[in-house]
Amino acid sequence: MQLSISGHHIDVTDSLHAHVTNKISKLERHYDHITNVHVILSVEKLVQKAEATLHISGAELFANAESEDLYTAIDLLSGKLDRQIIKHKEKLINRHKPKIAQET
C-alpha cells in the first residue's frame, strides 16, 4: 500500500504522520487489496479537517471528517473508511455468490 500525506495550511509533523500511518494501516485488516491512499490534512479557522481517497481493486473510496482536534478528525476518518471498505467487500462477496433458485 502506498500512502501519501499532505497538509493544507498545516505542517505535517512526525507525530501526525505516525498517527495517520497507524490508523490507515489498520484498514488492511479488513481488505488487503488497497493500492494507494492519499490523505489531506487541513485547518480552517477553528475546524480541523482530514480527508482521504483510497484506491482499491474495483473502486475508489472517499471520506472526510471534521473536528476541533486533528487527531480526532483522523480517528473519525479511519472509522468512515473502515465502514466503506467493509460495505465494498460485502458487495463483492454477494456478487460472486451463486444465486440459489427458490422453489415455489
Give an overview in words.
The chain has 104 residues and is an alpha+beta fold. It has one domain (2-96): 2-Layer Sandwich (Double Stranded RNA Binding Domain), CATH 3.30.160.100. The protein has two helices and four strands. The chain has helices at 14-25, 70-96; strands at residues 2-8, 34-44, 47-56, 59-67. Strands 1-2-3-4 form a four-stranded mixed beta sheet, covered by helices on one side. The longest helix is centred in the last third of the chain and has 27 residues, at 70-96. The mean pLDDT is 89.
CATH architecture: 2-Layer Sandwich
Residues in helix, % = 25-40%
- CATH fold group: Double Stranded RNA Binding Domain
- The number of strands is 4
CATH class (first level) name: Alpha Beta
Major beta sheet summary: 4 strands, mixed
Please count the helical segments.
Answer: 2
What is the H level of CATH, i.e. the homologous superfamily? Ribosome hibernation promotion factor-like
Structural domains: how many: 1
Head-to-tail CA distance between termini: 48 Å
Q: What class do helices, strands and sheet pairing give?
A: alpha+beta
Uncertain spans? none
Question: Approximately how much beta-strand content do the residues carry?
Answer: 35-45%
Spatial strand sequence of the major β-sheet: 1-2-3-4
Write the layout of secondary structure elements.
Layout: E1 2-8, H1 14-25, E2 34-44, E3 47-56, E4 59-67, H2 70-96
Parallel strand pairs: 1-2
Antiparallel strand pairs: 2-3, 3-4
Helix pairs in contact: 1-2
